[in-house]
Amino acid sequence: MEKLKVIVGLGSCGIAAGAGKVFDKISLLQDKYQVELDKTSCIGMCYREPLVEIIDGTHSYLYGGVDEELAEKLIQHHQKNHAPIKEYVVKTEEFKTEDSVFTDNQVKIALRHCGFINPEVIEEYENDHGYVALRKIANKEIDELGIIKEILDSGLRGRGGGGFPTGLKWKFAKESENEEKYIICNADEGDPGAFMDRSILEGDPHAVIEGMIIGAYTMGANEGVIYCRAEYPLAIKRLNIALAQAREKGYLGKNILGIENFNLNIYVKEGAGAFVCGEETALIASVEGERGMPRKRPPFPAASGLWKKPTNINNVETFSNIPWIIENGAKEYAKYGTEKSKGTKVFALTGKIKRGGLVEVPMGMTIHDIVFKLGGGIQDNKKFKAVQLGGPSGGCIPANLDNTIVDYDSVNATGAIMGSGGMVVMDESTCMVDMARFFLDFTQKESCGKCTFCRVGTKRMLEILTRITEGEGVEGDIEKLEELSYQIKDASLCGLGQTAPNPVLTTIKYFRHEYEAHIKDKKCPAGNCTKLLTYEVIPEKCTGCTLCAINCPTNAIDGTKKEIHFIRQDACINCGTCVVKCNFDAIKVY
Amino acid sequence: MKKNVESIFEQYPKSGRPDLIPLLQDVQESYGWLSEENVVKVSQFLDIPVSNIFGVATFYNQFRFQPVGEYHIQVCRGTACHVLGSSTVLKEIEKQIKVKAGNTTKDGVFSIEIVACIGACGLAPVISVNGEFHAKVTVESIKSIIDSYKTIEKK
Q1: What is the pLDDT of residue A1?
Q2: How far lies A66's CA from each of A4, A7, A70, A116, A432, in Å?
Q3: A175, A496, B37, B68: most buried by Cβ count inside 10 Å?
Q4: How far is CA A137 from CA A132, A220, A311, A328, in A?
Q5: Which of B60, B55, B48, B61 is nearest to B19 (CA)?
Q6: Interface of A with B in 440-499 (CB under 8 A)
Q7: What CA–CA distances, in Å, run from A187 to A232, A269, A333, A361?
Q8: Mean pLDDT of each 10-residue bin along chain B, 155 residues long
């Protein structure tokens, strides 16, 4: 009888949901049940973590929400019956599940191995088309110019958010004459609400490394740096394992795969937590050991970058697409997407969505389809209000524009940006002014301080927004915000400042009425800004348990035991403690 | 294992400016924070002025200049966590351990730090205690999470 094979998804998300414990438990039971245990990384279905795949003979079943107890039950069941327990299956070739729509509508190129191979074993990557593209180069099937042509023809654009054609970038780096050149992978995914790069690094580090090697060959770079956030310890660990394996197998080092004079070393540099380091020149300063502050361009990094040598920087997702394109050809890649945005894009679908996770879809899918088809709609069946795309540099696209397709130009037309792919879904209970304040709070803290308009302007904007959310907004605040926004955009050197006002501008554009309600009526329509809410006891529901009165920090609640309580509005500070403490839902908030 | 500064220096034989940030990271990893004493040692080792090192270190969010508690709680304030209520989660944690974010309790057991995004958005709101993630936390579940660490501490 063939052994059962059990594969546990051990990405950061899975581990956070308890997959580590499940893995440990199965490894203890390994001998008892005679199963083969393996691990993989994130398959993208965060909402069903922890995920465990059981391969039973020729059939494979992916189970969701597996805890230690269920894991054992599943193994026992499979051994006895060689059939699945259908109610826990999320994905299988055998039959449709309610989660099928999540996986069926995706096209996986950048994420092709994530959740399918063990990222810590190079052979698993090699056995699934790994390093095939690099071998094509070694076999002289394609040369530097051929690679640039393929990448240009594929239409691949920078997936970090800039959207600059990757082939063109490589061409510039190649044309820059110098003996020493550098290739850098930007893995400093600082955009809050995005985790595409982390998943790729954790789930398929070799794809990124192979992409970098191909890039280095094309432009003649001899040193590579992966600048990765220190907040991603698992990604760093797996990258270092993968790099050591690649060196051992001769994919890195001297005369790689026998290609004469092609020498390359790649190492990981840990970022130290600065959002602005996503900016190319700031990232370079950080690698050099300085404060990560951007500098004026030109000269562009392609001419003078790290240590003043020609440098090419691409994002994680961009690199992971490269080997696939070289292996399958530009035409295959360009089959997907729209006229100006080819291929696929990975999105981190989060927020108030039923099925949150990582999705890779062809460019050109509508936001509506992503949210409702793949994402399954809004949690608790609330009303869909907006999606936030592009993080602190992006903007909100309202529900009535949800037929917008995802490609660089269509998203830009709304005032948002594609960004790196964070897509945060909001429902009716999300306050848009508070959202804008949240992002300004972030950019204001992360501004490096070099440009006055960014340093001081974002601070002033944050003050105004905070005032509005606290009910202190005055007539003219909206106009002042707009004026400051345009000044900051015009007078900032780098992308951080130039895009920082986007969340404010798009929310004013689409949700001006919410700003006005805060300023004029002193009301928060979403019921989110606590200082603008009124709390009242519902007499019919109050049992007089005194719990609210005991916990009220300002003693604003009157009432004795078993009698209906009353909140004195003049003493109430709108902290919301009474709502949390009340066991009978007897506090009305409006 | 806590390594002393000198043994960390030994890992940087050809030291220079580019080693500054990795060196500071190693020192912080070992001690939990950057003390003035250690920064001075780094300055002498790399021959970079102390003021310059503080200029770099204070620029980055990662570096801390006061000791952290035995249980260091990181509260994610990324977008997904924010939308799903991380600000109330933070308030509740501050209430439970009676100290504001960015500080350490007097007994040195707990400290709170706000982090921008730890990349586990699918499981928001998330907190991490000494690197161990707790997913989908609520105001109600916080007490039991903190209590569980308090119990370990008492043992």
Answers
A1: 59
A2: 17, 12, 6, 18, 36
A3: A496
A4: 9, 14, 22, 14
A5: B48
A6: 442, 446, 448
A7: 10, 10, 23, 21
A8: 83 88 94 94 95 96 92 91 90 91 92 87 89 88 90 76
- Residue in chain B closest to A232 (alpha carbons) equals B118
Tell me whether A166 touches chain B (CB under 8 Å): no
Strand extents, DSSP E, B1-155: 71-76, 110-115, 127-129, 132-134
Tell me how far CA of residue A83 lies from CA of A27, A59, A76, A312, B89, in angstroms: 22, 9, 11, 51, 42
**How confident is the prediction for chain A on average, in pLDDT?**
94
Residue of A nearest to B24 (CA): A272
**In the structure, what pLDDT confidence band is assigned to residue A154 with cuts at 50, 70 and 90?**
very high
Position A264 scores a pLDDT of 97
Which of chain B's residues have a Cβ under 8 Å away from the Cβ of A229?
A: 119
Q: How many residues are listed for chain A in this entry? A: 590
- Residue A49 in contact with partner chain B when CB distance is under 8 A: yes
Q: Which domains does chain B have, with CATH numbers?
A: 5-59 (no CATH), 71-154 (3.40.30.10)
Sorted by where each starts, the structural domains of chain A and their CATH numbers stand as 4-98 (3.40.30.10), 122-333 (3.40.50.11540), 344-427 (3.10.20.600), 432-521 (1.20.1440.230), 534-589 (3.30.70.20)
Q: Does A278 touch chain B (CB under 8 A)?
A: no
Chosen for mutation from B59, B65, B113 (greatest number of chain A CBs closer than 10 Å) is B59
Q: Do residues A380 and A429 lie in contact, with contact meaning Cβ atoms separated by under 8 Å?
A: no
The one-character DSSP state at A366 is B
Q: Return d(Cα A254, Cα A259) in angstroms, integer.
A: 9
Quick one: pLDDT band at residue A415, thresholds 50, 70, 90? very high
Could you tell me which of A426, A337, A374 has the C-alpha nearest to residue A159? A337
Q: How much is the pLDDT for A180?
A: 95
**Entry field: residues in chain B:** 155
Percent with pLDDT over 70 in chain A: 100
Amino acid at A126: E
